[in-house]
Amino acid sequence: MPCVIITGFEPFGGESINPSWQAVNKLGDDLIAKHRVIALELPCEFDRSLDVLYKAIEQHHPVLVLCVGQAGGRSEISIERIAINIDDARIADNANTQPIDKPVIEDAPAAYFTNFPIKRMLVDLQKSHIPAAISNSAGTYVCNHVMYGLLHYIAEYEPQLKGGFIHIPYLPSQAVHHHGAPSMSEDTVINALKVLITAALSTKKDVKVAAGTTH
Q: Active site: which residues (predicted)?
């Protein structure tokens, strides 16, 4: 049976949970669009995260990889369009590593665009009444590191593999500790992940709708 890999991160930055893994873990061994879902927790570490991801890809041979990360302060599902070849960590990772102005991969392209049908994914989320937007920055922390590393792997070794990244808000249980911070329920995030995977698997050509930003 064909499979998809969906990843979340362990907690970081002083949080006791990470909403990405909380949601992703619930989908492990589910069937979505006749594809088995493999849930994978990634370490929030620059030096180990891609090793764990690459080993899982080589073991399971998925047709799609969707990586998910926490973006505290965002209010909607953020479908990431692009990853850049830079690590510039505002805080240290969970291994106390803090790269500054270092490439994710030496002598590799400056950036990669996801090959996900991001506009179709956006439209399908909106039709499901789930707040969502296209994001043009995955940051410069471990999330961008993983997204860039995934897309580089695809470009170098498996161009038929679909891959990309989304950011999700805090869970309500986290937001209560961050005054004014928006949140999204775990059930809504899980439903969003199902919509996103289904759209990515079923769409051969993306739709053209305006979803850019002015700044």
A: 80, 143, 167
Catalytic position from the list 167, 178, 186, 215: 167
Q: Give the residue carrying structure tokens 């050509």.
A: 205
Mind listing the pLDDT tens digit of every residue in the chain (215 residues)? Answer: 999 999 999 999 999 999 999 999 999 999 999 999 999 999 999 999 999 999 999 999 999 999 999 999 999 999 999 999 999 999 999 999 999 999 999 999 999 999 999 999 999 999 999 999 999 999 999 999 999 999 999 999 999 999 999 999 999 999 999 999 999 999 999 999 999 999 999 999 999 999 999 88
Domain ranges of the chain: 3-202
Residue 55 CB neighbours (<10 A): 11
Which residues are bridge partners to 8 per DSSP? 41
The partner residues of 135 in beta bridges, in order of sequence, read 80
Would residue 167 show up in a list of annotated catalytic residues for this protein? yes
Catalytic residue among 67, 143, 145, 152: 143
Which candidate in 45, 80, 145, 152 is catalytic? Answer: 80
Residue whose tokens read 């590593």: 97
Q: What is the largest CA-CA distance in the chain?
A: 45
Compute how many other C-beta atoms are within 10 angstroms of the C-beta atom of residue 102: 13
- pTM exceeds 0.90, yes or no: yes
- Residue 121 amino acid letter: M
- Specify whether 80 is catalytic: yes
Quick one: which H or E segment has residue 83? strand 82-84
CA distance 168 to 183: 9
